[in-house]
Amino acid sequence: MSFEIKKLLILILFTLRIWAVPTITPISTIEINGTVKDMVLSGDNLVVATDSGHIEVYDTIKKEKIKQINIPNVKDFMGDEIPARVMSTDTIDGKYLLLSDSGKGGYSNLFIYDNNLTQILSPNDKEAIIKARFIDINHILLGYLSNEVALLDLTTKKELYRVQLSESKFSDFALNEDKSQVVFSCESGVLNLVDVQTGKIIKKLKGQNVDNVYRVDFKKDTISGAGQDRRGSIYNAISGKGSYIAGDFLIYSTVLSPSAKKVAFSIDEKNNISIYNTSTKAKIALLKGQKSTLNVMIFKDENRLFSASDDSTIMVWNLKP
Fold first, then answer.
1. pLDDT digits (tens, 9 = 90+) for 164-196
2. Is the separation of the CB atoms in 274 and 286 below 8 Å?
């Protein structure tokens, strides 16, 4: 082999190495007693909602479970007692929120735990709520199946407003960092940017998804959407302009890094997670090892990521080698 050909091969290999996307496997896992349905990060603690009638609080530094909060069982259609499915959870100032199914007519139970468990809503209230988050210690934002947004005052147990955003079925919502704005997604593909204090629609974001947007995230005036149409959408919340990254399969989950410079999408049928540069859309990394359909992902910082699927294992990833 001539010297010139050797130089050319070395140059080709060097170029491929530069442009190759690194494949990353989990650095560790967290085992939960039940299937993970939702989770939030508070400081170093993961608060995890399960389908087994409880939430678990896991210290990510000490790598141990530090708290478990149980709610009462519910009855199925046969009248048998079963664990309630906790669909949504959150925490603020030592208080914990638990939103669960009730086993009755699709209506929800809402509990607040503050050393003791207090029920805020029951099936008698006939509310079909899918997601809930604290706005402050006395107010909770609610996302209804009917794609209504409401702000609940915990002191009076009354809603300060309830606004119908569209006729499409609700999918998800995500708050910005100071909880002044929230983005709602639904089965139409249109995202509604809403003022939290009034419930008024600030802006409708559309054009990048044409079907159900399963999940959304909202950081640094950037919004990402995980679409049934195999599109991972990215919008600027101020200008309303957007673009999308094409996937190979239904995109069930998305998350933005704290700076919003990175975005993650579950991009293929193997449940792999692809990390992209938000501005250039260039793929940064491929995360392999997820065993089932992704539910939720959380960036702890620019390089540490937690992901949870329809199973009992939370995976921990580090984007830096």
1. 999 999 999 999 999 999 999 999 999 999 999
2. yes
